[in-house]
Protein: Helix-turn-helix transcriptional regulator
Amino acid sequence: MKANAITTCYVGPEISPEQFIPEHFFLYLAKGKIEGYDGHRKYVMKAGDYVLACKNQLARYNKHTDKGAFEKVVVVFDQAFLKGYMERYKIVPPAPSPKAPFIPLQKNELVPHFIQSLTPYYNNENNRIGDPFLNVKREELLMILLQHNSELAGILFDFREPEKLDLEAYMNRNYKFNVHLERFAYLTGRSLSVFKRDFAAIFSDTPNRWLTQRRLQEAYFLLDKKGAKPSEIYLDLGFENLSHFSFAFKKKYGIAPTELSDRKKQALPLKKA
Structure:
């Protein structure tokens, strides 16, 4: 891999940058630092750490380079691959295990050796391990992980669709994630039409309008009470860009977020020496 660059080696299909995990994947961080958030808690990964990211979960992460370098290896265990693995090795479906967006994995000396073994097959042009070694290397890693983390079988080989959830609790916990309404509907076990109907019955509003207002309320609190800067919070609150956030905020509160932030700073008492 190139030094002093942001590099990802993919083994399997590339994962969407959307704040949603559509397929299970293994993530090994070679250089840099990652700060993740799943709606409940924050995670920090440093070089040498690795996790399993579980499908059908909302999550996001921020990358931090180490002297300009950031390198990670992503091995995707998509459903088609996992079903084929089960059939090939005649695995009896295990009982489902509880899922979390990020599962830190028990350290295993075979994992760093596996990462090093990818180098001869790595294509710098497309950041991928290509055929015919793609599934061979994915199977190798899966065997290593299951051997040392047997409980992962109940996660990886659980092919059920999301069940119907408490919509009010789910949305109040996950409103900061910038995903399409279809994702929220799917993850709460509903069709889009049923999701919108249930949403209106609970919140007396449309999902898009409620999400915008809820995010703006949280933004006002962070700017007014916590002294946050608009540029620090708009992405974490689910806004796609700063200009959209600023426009929506001023429309609702009659003041630009930067003005509120500056006013708050000016009102702060000076610290005593």
Observations:
- Residues 255 and 273 are 33 Å apart (CA to CA).
- Residues 269-273 have pLDDT under 50 and may be disordered.
- The chain has two domains: 6-156, 167-267.
